[in-house]
Each structure stands twice: as structure tokens, then as C-alpha cells.
Amino acid sequence: MNDCPNAEIRDQLPDLLHDRLNPSARAAVLAHVDGCADCREELELLRGVRAAMVAGTPRVNVASIVRALPAPSAPRRATIRPSRPRWADWRIAATITVLAAGASSVTLLNRAHDASRNTTVVPPSAAATALPSPTPAPLAQRPADAAPSTTPATPAQRAPVPSAEQQVASVDDQTLPPDPAADARLSTLDESQLRTLLTEIQQMKAVPITEPDPVMIQVAPRTSPSAGEGEREGRS
Amino acid sequence: MALIARWQAGDQRAATELVERHASALARFAVSSGERNEVDELVQDTFVRAFSSIDGFRGDSSFRTWLFTIERRLLLDRRRAEKRRRDRTELQEDDAATEYDALDSVVAGETEARLQGAITKLSPTQREVFTLRIAEGLSYKEIAEAVGTTEGAARVHYHNAMRAVKEFLDE
Predict the structure, then answer these.
(1) Pick from B55, B119, B135: which is nearest to A54 by CB?
(2) What's the pLDDT tens digit per position in A21-35?
(3) What chain A residue is nearest to B37 in terms of C-alpha separation?
(4) Which of B111, B139, B170 sits opposite A48 (nearest CB)?
(5) How far is it, in rounded angstroms, from Cα A201 to Cα A96?
(6) What is the dihedral of CA B42, B43, B44, B49, to 10 degrees?
């Protein structure tokens, strides 16, 4: 059995056997095989070898293989977070309430501070309904001073009401002390006053009323001149 | 790839179809690689390994070539284990006649029996390349991938095997 000298064609004989050639290559190989006895003989040999291999293939139990196969992996699920304990809900609500109350206090204090600095006054109509005093008072006036005369007066309320200029000066020069009764006195304002107050609060910008404590940097005194020289030498 | 996608979607018939399509080729390759006693088990292990790591199949080669690669790796692992037990099953030159006799009962015609005998005379690598090229119709590139060699080496192995078979038949 001889080998055809055309190695390129011989290389493609198995592809011809398995019909893996494109039409043009297949036509070229078939044309060569028609005129080449060695290639025809080799092609017959390939058919025989293939048949022998197929005949000698042991049977495989397909069903048992399929049974042994693993199940397809499930699609990835979203990570389930552990449920939040119920007690956390009222804690969140309490935190929000405390923050809201704190923000309102800061806003009110800042508003009073800015109003006194800019000598912004409440329109006379609103002030007249809010205050029994004949003279228009600045809105920055503490609610303790704006309490109506119908309510029982506390010792603080009985103090003489200062003039507008005195209030501006006093508010500008000092920080308002915390007054626990202020919130209670807000309830004495009527609806229009509260709306005016709320509108102005919304137009204001909250700024922190406290500044961070200054940081003091302490420099240790130098112990001996020789140690400093040694350190400088070490750095060089 | 469509069958793989169907199987991943839960279609068990797709798995059956894949096994039916490739099991015989894997069995042939196992025999050509010298496996005689546990072909069924080797083929099953190959499929189990392939389906377990099917997410790693990127489709760069054909699914069948990928299966051949896995099967050959499993076969090498087995041989190493058997070598440690000093009970090698790799086909030796003296065993060729024995295998020939064993296969003789399976092969129907005398020509097929002679061809089968010629194949068993080949070296293990030649047998693998010869089987993949003739029985499965793989290209040299695919053979190189499955056997773990270069395309040029696969071509050389094939032509050497063909020459050896012809010489055996001419004797």
C-alpha cells in the first residue's frame, strides 16, 4: 500500500470521510481521488478503520449516566438579609424625634440671633395679634415675653418688657440661655403667627452654634543638645 | 450550547440527548487510550465531571473536544493511581495480542479484526490521535487540544500511525 505524494490531499481524506470540507475543498479532493489509486485505497482503508472502531466500541448505559449527573445549579438568588428586630423600629423613631427636636431648637435660636442682628421685625399686624404690647416687638423676642396677659404670669414674665433697642442689644451681646418653658409658650401663638414663623424658619439655614474645641499641640522640651545633634546626624 | 442551556434551565431530556450524542465517542476514545475494563465507569465519570463544571465551559472548543480533554485527564489520574498500586492497566506491547483476542469476539469480519489488531500495535499517543482523527473526524487543532500536544505533533502522530497500520496490513 503506497502513500500518495500529495500530502495536502491525504491530510484531508479524514475530513472528506466525515464530510467536514467546504464545497470547493470537497470538489478538489474528490477530483484528486478520482484520478489517484493510492488515495482511493487510503480512503477505503479509512472507512474500514472507522467501521472497525465503531464496531469495537463497548456499549454504554446512557440511562445510568444520566441518573448520575448532578442537578443543574440553581440560579443565583438575592442575598436574604436577616429580619431586623422589632425593637429597632421604636429606636429609630425615637432617634428621629430627638434629632428633629434638636434641629428645631437650633433653628429657633439661630433665627432669634439673626433677627436681632438684622433688626428684622415682624409685620405689625402679626405682632399685634401675637403681643398685647402696644409697641411692635421683634420676632426674635422670646416667647416668654410674648405670652398673653390672660395666662397666669410667671415671675420671669412679670419682669419689665425692655424696649426693642434694648432687646436687640441684649440678644446681640449674649447667648440666649436655654429656656424649658419656650416650647410651651409657642402653643399660645395663633395659626397665622405659627405660619409666619414656619415660613421664616424654612427660609433660614441652620448653622452649628458651637465650634470645635481648639486642639493644643504640646511640644516636649529638648532634653540635651547632644541628643538633638545625634538625631540630626541620624537623619542625614 | 443550546442543549447545555436547556439542561441548565432544568430540562432533563437535554442531558439525555447530550449523553446519547457523545457517550459512544468517549467510549471509543477510552478504548483507544488503553482502558478496557471500566469504560462505562470512565465515561460516566467524564460526564459527571463535565456537568459539574459546565459553567467553566466557555465554548472555545466543541463540547465533544472538551469531553475528550476531561476524559483523558481522568484516565491519566487513574493510571497514576494504578501505578502507585503497581497494577498498571496501560497497554503493554505484550498485551497487544491479548487485547486483540479480546476484541476479536466483538469484531464481526476478518478485515475489521485485522484493522483492530493493527490499531492495537500503535503507541498510546498514536492510537489516541488516530482514533480522534478517523473515528471522530476531529481536526488537528482539536486533537491537539484534547491530547495536550501541538497541532504539528498531532499531524506527525497521525501520519506515523497511518504508515504503521499500512505496514501491518501489508505483512
Answers:
(1) B135
(2) 999 999 999 999 999
(3) A58
(4) B111
(5) 19
(6) 90
